[in-house]
TrEMBL record:
Keyword Oxidoreductase: yes
Name recorded for this polypeptide: NADP-dependent 3-hydroxy acid dehydrogenase YdfG
Family: Belongs to the short-chain dehydrogenases/reductases (SDR) family.
Lineage: Bacteria, Bacillati, Bacillota, Bacilli, Bacillales
Location of the Ketoreductase domain: 6-190
Source organism per UniProt: Alkalicoccus daliensis
Gene Ontology molecular function terms on file: oxidoreductase activity, acting on the CH-OH group of donors, NAD or NADP as acceptor
Pfam family name, one: adh_short
UniProt entry tagged with the keyword Oxidoreductase: yes
Protein keywords: Oxidoreductase
Domain of life: Bacteria
C-alpha cells in the first residue's frame, strides 16, 4: 500500500508502542498525527522525524475528554484532508489489589482505557462512514483475554476494549471500514511506572525476573499494526495476539 497522502492518528504516541508505531508509518511516507498529554515529548518526536519521508505533526490531547478527542480528529482532517487510520493506543496500567481500594486509579483506568477508546471511535466514525473507508485499531492486551492477580480492573478495561471493538466490527459489517484489536503480551515500555501498589509492583518484578522471556519492543507491535493495515481492502484482520515467545 502506498502511504503517501494517507493519514494515521495515534493516541498514546508520546512513548512506547505509540511512538514506535509513529516511527514505522513516518518511514513509509504517511502523515502521522501524534496525540498524548506530554507536549514536550510530542514536539521532540516531531523534530526527530522532520526529515523522514512522512509528515509528523501533533495535537496535545487528553483522551478522557470527549471534546479533545473530537478536536484531535478535526485537527487531523484540517491538516491532512482525511483520517485513514485511528490507532486508539493510549492506556494506563496502575495494577493494584482490590483490597487496597485505589479508587482514583480504578477511575483513571476506566476513563483512559475504556472511555478514551469510545471517544476516539465516536469522533472518527462519521468521517469514515461518509467516505466508507478507514481502519480503527485499539490496543487491548493479553490482559483482555486472561485475568491476573492485582489486575481485576486493568484486565476489565482491556476485556472491555476488545469487546467494544468486536461490537464495532459487527456494526460496520456492511461497510468497507475495518476494525482490529491488538493484544500484546509483555512489551518493554514505561507502562509499569504508574503502579503505586508496592505489592503489585513487586509481584510483577519477581514474575519478570523469574521468567526467561525476552520482552517485546514497541517496534514489534508497530510491525503488527503495519501488517494489519496493509492487507488488501477485502481482508479485515480483527485481532492480533502477540507475545514474547517464552511468555506463558
Ligand atoms: P507507555 O506508558 O509507554 O505509553 C502509554 C501512552 O498512553 C503514553 O503515550 C501516554 O502519554 C498515553 N496516555 C496515558 N494517559 C493518557 C491520557 N489521559 N490521554 C492521552 N494519552 C494518554 O506504555 P505502552 O506503550 O506499553 O502502552 C500503550 C498501550 O499498550 C496501552 O493501552 C497499554 O495498556 C497497552 N499494552 C501494553 C503492554 C505492555 O506490556 N507494555 C501489554 C499489553 C497492552 P502521556 O502520558 O503523554 O499522555
Amino acid at each position: 500500500m502506498d502511504w503517501n497522502n494517507k493519514t494515521i492518528v495515534i493516541t498514546g504516541a508520546s512513548s512506547g508502542i505509540g511512538e514506535a508505531t509513529a516511527a514505522r508509518f513516518a518511514k513509509e511516507g504517511a502523515n502521522v498525527v501524534l496525540a498524548a498529554r506530554r507536549e514536550e515529548r510530542l514536539e521532540e518526536i516531531k523534530q526527530r522525524f522532520i526529515d523522514s519521508p512522512g509528515t509528523v505533526d501533533y495535537k496535545p490531547t487528553d483522551v478522557t475528554s470527549q471534546q479533545q478527542m473530537e478536536e484531535l480528529i478535526s485537527f487531523a482532517i484540517d491538516r491532512f484532508g482525511q483520517v485513514d487510520v485511528l490507532f486508539n493506543n493510549a492506556g494506563l496500567m496502575p495494577l493494584s489489589f482490590l483490597e487496597k481500594k485505589k479508587v482514583d486509579e480504578w477511575d483513571k483506568m476506566i476513563d483512559v482505557n475504556i472511555k478514551g477508546v469510545l471517544y476516539g471511535i465516536g469522533a472518527v466514525l462519521p468521517h469514515m462512514k461518509e467516505r466508507n473507508s478507514g481502519h480503527i485499531l485499539t490496543t487491548s492486551s493479553i490482559a483482555g483475554h486472561e485475568v491476573m492477580p492485582a489486575g481485576a480492573v486493568y484486565c476489565g478495561t482491556k476485556f472491555a476494549a476488545r469487546v467494544i471493538m468486536e461490537g464495532l466490527g459487527k456494526e460496520l459489517a456492511s461497510t468497507d471500514i475495518r476494525t482490529t484489536s491488538i493484544s500484546p503480551g509483555v512489551v518493554d515500555t514505561e507502562l509499569m511506572d504508574s503502579i503505586s501498589d508496592d505489592d503489585a509492583l513487586n509481584m510483577m518484578k519477581e514474575g519478570l525476573a523469574k521468567s526467561e522471556m525476552t520482552p517485546l519492543k514497541g517496534e514489534d507491535i508497530a510491525e503488527a499494526v503495519f501488517y494489519t493495515v496493509n492487507q488488501p481492502s477485502h481482508v479485515d484482520v480483527n485481532e492480533i495476539i502477540i507475545r514474547p515467545t517464552k511468555q506463558g
